[in-house]
Design brief:
427 residues, alpha/beta, Rossmann fold, 5-stranded mixed β-sheet, 14 helices, 42% helix, globular, binds glutamic acid
Length: 427
């Protein structure tokens, strides 16, 4: 990686070319607000390692197809690498590196003893049979086995992977190690060492953070209008909880379009992706296109679908008072600046959806201790951790007049930098 140039400051009006460019630009912006050794910033612009593997997969028809897999490990100064594995056709080396940087900040903002990683396979799981996905997962686990482990690097679910994928991964790893090693991945089903509440956790943290930020801006949740883009695990769980807590969820969407009711949707009647995939428009009385959802005049907009959803092209349509990021990287750098210019606060992904990795940490503790926590304990401890992180970020927002993203980065970067300073660089 070294020798590659980073984004020059005068190109801030152009969209970064990749998640890696975005992550580097955000790091530069944050570093300007922290008293930090520039050598440490330089180090943090690069991953410690990126592993690339080929995964030969025997298709159901007997032919062999070679897939490419990655594991990017960004920084481990505060503890083992941690982050998801995605199975998606657009997975790339740079995307994995950018997302691994975000995991470093996400773990640090939550004060978890982990560093950042991300990986994935360039594949469309929807085009593979369940048996093929299982073989792909097991062989990928085998290929990256030397670089993962409960004290080295702990994968988790992300786009295109779920609890079943983690179970296969854990089984393949354990078979080769000759012993059951539940702590090698998190996000497993509870019957094999997974944690209660892990599946709902990213959506739960989005809901908690939405509640807190509404309170900060003097809005009670009661009657607050909310639009949720994306009705996968994050969006559906956030919508369900916010509805339960009295908010008026007026729109939710999936790839086919959005259900919209200005008086508030009956969220219970819309099946989650896990129950019936992509059924939002089938059950809705009133359907609007996805781009109209982004332009609704609501109190809170939650982009919880994919990265790069709010871009230079559609940001001027956004009519919400607050944006809470449910997906990883849903707001591009240029869109983020335009929202800031219009005084629309954006609560960043690294805080808002950090419930996922926080309950992953709880799962890892449960696996090490061979003792499971009740669902109530998980949710209580998650709320405690989320409120502590939110308050810490809010202190920076208030004290230095920073955006929520800058403030979250300042908290995270200060912790990572302090650890690097104490440990020192071994040149
Ligand atoms: N993939 C999730 C994220 O982006 C969870 C990572 C984890 O639990 O390690 O935060």
């Amino acid at each position: 990686m070294s020798g590659q140039s980073t984004t020059p400051v005068d190109s801030q009006d152009e969209e970064p070319a990749s998640a890696l460019e975005t992550a580097r630009r955000q790091l530069d912006n944050a570093a300007a607000h922290v008293d930090i050794d520039p050598n440490i910033v330089e180090r943090l612009k690069h991953p410690a390692q990126v592993h690339e593997v080929t995964i030969p997969l025997e298709r159901d028809d007997g032919t062999l197809e070679a897939f490419t897999g990655y594991r990017a490990q960004h920084d481990s100064v505060r503890g083992p690498y941690k982050g998801g594995l995605r199975f998606h056709p657009e997975v790339s080396r740079d995307e994995c590196v950018g997302l691994s940087m975000w995991m470093t900040w996400k773990c640090a903002v939550m004060d978890l003893p982990f560093g950042g990683a991300k990986g994935g396979v360039v594949a469309n799981p929807k085009a593979l049979s369940d048996d093929e996905v299982e073989r792909l997962t097991r062989r990928f686990a085998q290929e990256i086995r030397p670089v993962v482990g409960p004290t080295k690097d702990i994968p988790a679910p992300d786009m295109g992977t779920d609890a079943q994928t983690m179970s296969w991964f854990m089984d393949a790893y354990s078979m080769q190690e000759g012993e059951t090693v539940p702590g090698v991945v998190t996000g497993k089903p509870p019957v094999v060492g997974g944690s209660h509440g892990r599946e709902e956790a990213p959506g739960r943290s989005v809901a908690l953070v939405t509640r807190e930020v509404c309170d900060y801006y003097g809005l009670g949740l009661d009657g607050t209008t909310i639009a949720v883009q994306g009705y996968g695990s994050v969006g559906a769980n956030a919508a369900e909880l916010l509805d339960e807590w009295g908010a008026s969820v007026v729109a939710v969407s999936d790839v086919n379009g959005a259900a919209y009711d200005p008086d508030g949707l009956d969220i219970g009647s819309i099946p989650a992706h896990s129950e019936r995939p992509e059924a939002v428009t089938e059950v809705a009385d009133n359907v609007i296109p996805n781009d109209e959802l982004l332009g609704l005049d609501v109190d809170v907009l939650i982009p919880a679908a994919v990265g790069n959803a709010i871009t230079a092209d559609n940001v001027d349509d956004v009519d919400a008072d607050i944006v809470v990021e449910g997906a990883n990287g849903p707001t591009t750098a240029v869109a983020d600046r335009r929202l800031a210019e219009r005084d629309i606060p954006v609560v960043p992904d690294i805080l808002a959806n950090a419930g996922g990795v926080t309950v992953s940490y709880f799962e890892w503790l449960q696996d090490i201790n061979r003792r499971s926590w009740s669902p109530e304990r998980v949710n209580e401890e998650l709320e405690t951790e989320m409120l502590a992180a939110f308050d810490r970020v809010q202190e920076e927002v208030d004290a230095r007049d920073l955006s929520w993203r800058e403030a979250a980065y300042v908290v995270a970067l200060s912790r990572v930098a302090a650890a690097h300073e104490k440990r020192g660089v071994w040149p």
